[in-house]
Amino acid sequence: MTIATESLVEALKEILSDDQVSINQAIRELHGRDESYHAMSLPSIVVFPTSAEDVSKIMKLAQTHQVPIVPFGLGTSLEGHVIPYDNGITIDFSMMNKVLEIKANDLLVKVQPGVTRTQLNQELKKYGLFFSVDPGADATLGGMAATNASGTTSVKYGVMRDQVRDLEVVLADGTIIHTGNLAAKSSSGYHLNGLFVGSEGTLGCFTELTLRVYGIPEHVMAARASFLSINDAVEAVVSILQAGIPIARVELVDEVSMKQANLHSETNYKEEPTLFMEFHGNEAGLKQDIEFMKEIVEDHHCQSIAFEKDNAARNKLWDARHNLAYAYIHGYPGKKMMVTDVCVPISELANAVHYARQQLDAFGLPGGIVGHVGDGNFHALVMMDMDNPEEVAKANQLNELIVMYALERDGTCTGEHGVGIGKLKYQAIEHGAALLVMEKIKLALDPNNLLNPNKIVKLEEQGVNL
Amino acid sequence: MTIATESLVEALKEILSDDQVSINQAIRELHGRDESYHAMSLPSIVVFPTSAEDVSKIMKLAQTHQVPIVPFGLGTSLEGHVIPYDNGITIDFSMMNKVLEIKANDLLVKVQPGVTRTQLNQELKKYGLFFSVDPGADATLGGMAATNASGTTSVKYGVMRDQVRDLEVVLADGTIIHTGNLAAKSSSGYHLNGLFVGSEGTLGCFTELTLRVYGIPEHVMAARASFLSINDAVEAVVSILQAGIPIARVELVDEVSMKQANLHSETNYKEEPTLFMEFHGNEAGLKQDIEFMKEIVEDHHCQSIAFEKDNAARNKLWDARHNLAYAYIHGYPGKKMMVTDVCVPISELANAVHYARQQLDAFGLPGGIVGHVGDGNFHALVMMDMDNPEEVAKANQLNELIVMYALERDGTCTGEHGVGIGKLKYQAIEHGAALLVMEKIKLALDPNNLLNPNKIVKLEEQGVNL
To answer: Its Enzyme Commission number (chains A, B) (predicted)?
Structure first.
């Protein structure tokens, strides 16, 4: 431990209790990685605040000592967002994990950032409510807001940014602000809610979130439809969307991934390109929607369609979908997974998925394609041996080809995972001169570049390394 | 005309054609007011660009001459947004009024900022599509994006910010950027779409908008339900929302306003507190939704309910609602209208509307209450004689009481009209320390404070007066 670190630990222990400050190697290692393939780097110190005031004091100290700050939820990020490449202090929000208030009449909930989405949904169930954003991993809501997470239900309910009514944010200088209010809409002032959601800890740390929730739908119906080709499946989705059928979930799983799912989840689903779908609504409306959907998928050479009415079968289906990433990881011991995350205009989706599958085959890397195709967002799940430089190079090249394909068609390099360190190199290509605006905003709000430095935007200046 | 103005006119005529630059008194007067009661102030020069490049050149010239810039659509703003209190150049976008591209497969449309919403809807109709945001006035889409407009359909389809996929923006220094892309969602970079929407010309001028559109719903049903009291009507809305019925429009019109509507629109609707509702969906689903709605309104002592199935009757109903502001204006010749615009959490709505009605009566000012109650947003339409200082003072006091009531309940001073000059005084109370963040953003993007100065935020520095 350097003298600088020692003096900072001393200072932190003056404002927090001893057990809220750790320099333990194992603890630091837990905060030196996420769920991605990105290289590890350890924080010098990990702190565990219990309040916004704690966070404010930590921020002020970081300014005094000119030390970087990285906020940390559960480490489920996929692009190295929480890895502290400049070391410094990691703020772990696990001690701020309370559901503070459920305002059922307003369909709002107030939570601390360390609450996970399943924890929230368990609480909400008692009120007949649910939180809609579902990224697969049981991430914290603070982390989900920081990356503008989304997932299977976004096609109907929107992404994380659409759910955030208000954030309590601690700024770089320790000031505590609120970015919104409890009204359903507002035209007052600049849209700080939207700016801070997706800012990945580079503009401030969230200490409280007020989120929109929904009534559990009266009726839910899930279906699996298998197709001759990925192309048919994707074209069917495009037709469903264009027909205005209010589908709640529509996920593509390619045949390779169906095999992997069957192996891992002990299902015996057909190993063909498949759409996992879900519909929410009233009984009569749902019935009519589903009849219409059936006509459409048949027009697109659907091979078979199966409905899951009861809760257990439906949960099994979505578990199989959610566990797909883990199915690959367990299926290829020793390998790491790279997940691409482009999102394209829906008219470009079929070709984009086809292109990704072709490239995956051409590189000879094991992996599959899955995606939230209702949004035009899909992932290539690519397995690679990190000790094999050739494989890693191939995976990186594949990722780049898929990203460039999307950007050339006015899509985005990341639909839901965020920039972190992995998509930093595409920011200038994707945003052009708008990146300068982002840099100006970062500089205005974090002039010493201490908040999760070199994520999203890379400024010249930065704090000292401990 | 001052020497400074003369030399600027010269310079503008070098970069634009002569007929794109006007110092005509009548033209300047047209650009010196909006639809509000706020005092007139004339621009020194009005310019009519035809391209982003024109706007970029104008911006650069404004920097050289240190002259304020105000963008202008059709002047339908309600808080003095487009009134150039610091004179300077007004950029009128009426020559940039083309629908550039309808991407029906992607449910997207690309337009210039001077296109109006009815103009867009006429074009979209040919494709079975419609644009959802409906603020009443036939505003330009550039203006609607600048104020984050919304209206009757926002309860289902969202506000203007929810529809904007990309903006082409000319910044203060003349740089042209794009704030988004064509993908349905993105976690790449800071959310510039959201930041620029609602920025009221204070951060840049919009020269192109890519907007989300929707398929015209298969079935539409409209209804009028009248109640014994405003309170019953509002409580019914709260119950409908909590039941999760996907209502597409739900508007409150109080008894005074129903009278005014009947006078103006030659209808003979019951002069009781009334909800105007609309439902969109498939036939079977709609039927079930409406049955459920009927049960709920009956629980809230609904006096009568009438359905309008056919297009003509439905249009008549919505015309009566949309023309209400004009109904008051025509009903009180010589008086000006002040429109309040608070939005509160839905659980506070009934009391807030009751409070506003009470205060309106207590002040003895003529007027009524209408509102997009599904969002918690309502307006007191207050008539006042601008030559009677006492009446004006009363109206201002009423507005302030209603705003403070909303802010004390974590609502907002403006749900959809925007800040302009009228809500500037409430920004510090509403946003607290977050206003400093807004000021930093403004300063970072418009360091000389030339873009619509003193709207939304008030900085120290500003350009020269011509």
So the answer is: 1.1.2.4
- Top residue of B105, B159, B185, B443 to mutate, by most chain A CBs within 10 Å, is B185
Question: Residue A161: its chain B contacts at CB < 8 A?
Answer: 191, 194
**Residue A154 and residue B111: Cα distance in Å, rounded?**
26
- Furthest C-alpha separation in chain A: 71
Strand-pairing partners, residue A167, are A209
DSSP state of A451: B
Is A159 within 8 Å of B185 when comparing Cβ atoms? yes
**B106 contacts A192? CB cut-off 8 A:** no
* Alpha-helical runs (H) found in A139-254: 141-147, 154-157, 160-163, 192-196, 230-242
Which residues from A are below 8 Å from B215, CB to CB? Answer: 242-244
The closest CB to that of A215, out of B197, B215, B244, belongs to: B244
Contact present, A135 and A144 (Cβ < 8 Å) = yes
Could you give all domains of chain B from N- to C-terminal order, each with its CATH number?
1-216+449-456 (3.30.465.10), 219-323 (3.30.70.2190), 332-408 (3.30.70.2740)
Q: Judge contact between B286 and B211, C-beta under 8 A.
A: no
Among B150, B158, B161, B142, which residue's Cα sits nearest to residue B201? B142
Q: Percentage of residues in chain B with pLDDT exceeding 90?
A: 93
**Number of A–B residue contacts, CB under 8 Å:** 303
Residues of A in Cβ contact (< 8 Å) with B184: 343, 345-346, 375-377
Closest C-alpha among B232, B246, B230 to residue B292: B246
**Nearest-angstrom CA–CA distance, A210 and A164:** 6
* CA-based nearest residue in chain A for residue B346: A106
| Residue-wise pLDDT tens digits, B245-266 | 999 999 999 999 999 999 998 8
Q: Could A418 and B149 be called an inter-chain contact, meaning their C-beta atoms sit closer than 8 Å?
A: no
Quote the tokens at residue B13.
Answer: 């005529």
Element (H, E) at A233: helix A230-242
What rounded mean pLDDT belongs to chain B? 95
Q: Are A353 and A342 contacting, i.e. CB atoms less than 8 angstroms apart? A: no
Tell me the C-alpha distance between B59 and B82, whole Å.
Answer: 17
Residue B461 in this model has a pLDDT that exceeds 80: no
**What is the C-alpha end-to-end distance of chain B, expressed in Å?**
9
Nearest to A412 among B150, B183, B192 (CB): B183
pLDDT at A464 exceeding the cut of 60: no
A384, A37 Cβ separation under 8 angstroms: yes
Q: What are the DSSP calls for B175-191, one per residue?
A: -EEE---SSS---SS--
Point out which residues pair with B46 in neighbouring strands.
B22, B90
Cβ–Cβ < 8 Å for B137, B172: no
User: How near does any CA of chain B get to the CA of A263, in Å?
Assistant: 32
Distance, CA of A26 to CA of A16 (rounded, Å): 21
CA distances to B18, B19, B36, B55 from B15, rounded to whole Å, are: 9, 12, 34, 10
- Give the closest residue to A298 by CA, choosing from A270, A275, A267: A275
How far is Cα of residue B333 from the mean position of the Cα atoms in its chain? 24
CA distance B177 to B197: 14
Q: Do B188 and A426 touch (CB under 8 A)?
A: yes
Q: Which residues in B lie closer than 8 A to residue A213 (C-beta atoms)?
A: none
Dump pLDDT digits (tens) for B62-91.
999 999 999 999 999 999 999 999 999 999
CA torsion angle B414 B415 B416 B422 (round to 10): -10
Instruction: Give the Cα separation of A38 and A174 in Å (integer).
Output: 30
The token pair at A413 is 């390099």
ipTM value of the model?
A: 0.96
State the Cα angle at B310 between B307 and B311, rounded to 5°: 120
Per residue in A337-387, pLDDT (tens digit) is 999 999 999 999 999 999 999 999 999 999 999 999 999 999 999 999 999
Which among B265, B236, B253 has a CA at the least distance from the CA of B368? B253
